[in-house]
Amino acid sequence: MTDPALLETVEHETGPSPAWTVLWLHGLGADGNDFAPIVPELVRKDWPALRFVFPHAPVRPVTINNGVPMRAWYDIRDMNLAQRADEAGVDQSVVQVEALIAREAARGVPASRLLLAGFSQGGAITLAAGVRRTEPLAGLIALSTYLPMPERLMGEVTVQAPSQPLFMAHGQFDPVVPYAGGDASARALRGKGFAIDWHAYPMAHQVCAEQIRDLGEWMGRRFVAG
Q: Is residue 205 among the annotated active site residues?
């Protein structure tokens, strides 16, 4: 029986009895189907069996879009990154992501073999959840994004959190989440001890083939280490 408290998800397994999970959060206005097509482009033949889990964010009114309801991990009230995210929405989404992480543990995939990934808004939730983890994940993947509520979350970084490898990538011409914002978040996290694999690409608010290649190489190193 499905737990009604859990977010609905799209799932794809690359082999029987997956030993690893990639939990991937989409961006504003998209849904769990958005990044599902990336699986065959990303996965390498020598990887262990993986379960990709793509949750659908809740539908909520978004202030900067005239209050129109859409799938969003939190309300966006202002284009300024420092004031962009509503704290209640971020906190609620982190709780929902933690519930999915707990479900994977119940299905036999512990936190140490789970990668948490996200694009744009989803990446912001990835970072917000990652900095507060007391049981480290296998790694964090934050694409075209930033750390929300930086003053608060910088003070909530746990002792264990910086042990999580972090892949961050950003478009140099991103008009949605400015490159400078992503770079500033990366520098702040480095200051807290995170080892960040940072990548910049000549693109806008998107994902490119070179980025998928670089991410695949980074993920492959995690599977070897695990």
A: yes
- Say how many domains are in the chain: 1
The answer as to whether 141 is a domain residue is yes
* CATH at residue 128: 3.40.50.1820
Residue 38's alpha-carbon distances to 5, 67, 216, in angstroms, are 27, 30, 11
Does residue 37 lie within any of the structural domains?
yes
Q: Which domain holds residue 47?
A: 9-225
State the DSSP code for 163: G
Q: Which of 120, 144, 170, 185 is catalytic?
A: 120
Q: Is 34 a catalytic residue?
A: no
Walk along the chain (226 residues) in steps of 10 and give the mean pLDDT of each run.
Answer: 74 96 97 95 96 97 94 88 83 97 97 98 98 97 95 92 98 96 96 97 97 97 84
Beta strand residue intervals within the chain, DSSP E: 9-13, 20-25, 50-55, 59-62, 68-71, 114-119, 139-143, 166-171, 196-201
91 falls within a domain: yes
Tell whether 144 is covered by a domain: yes
Active site residue 174: yes
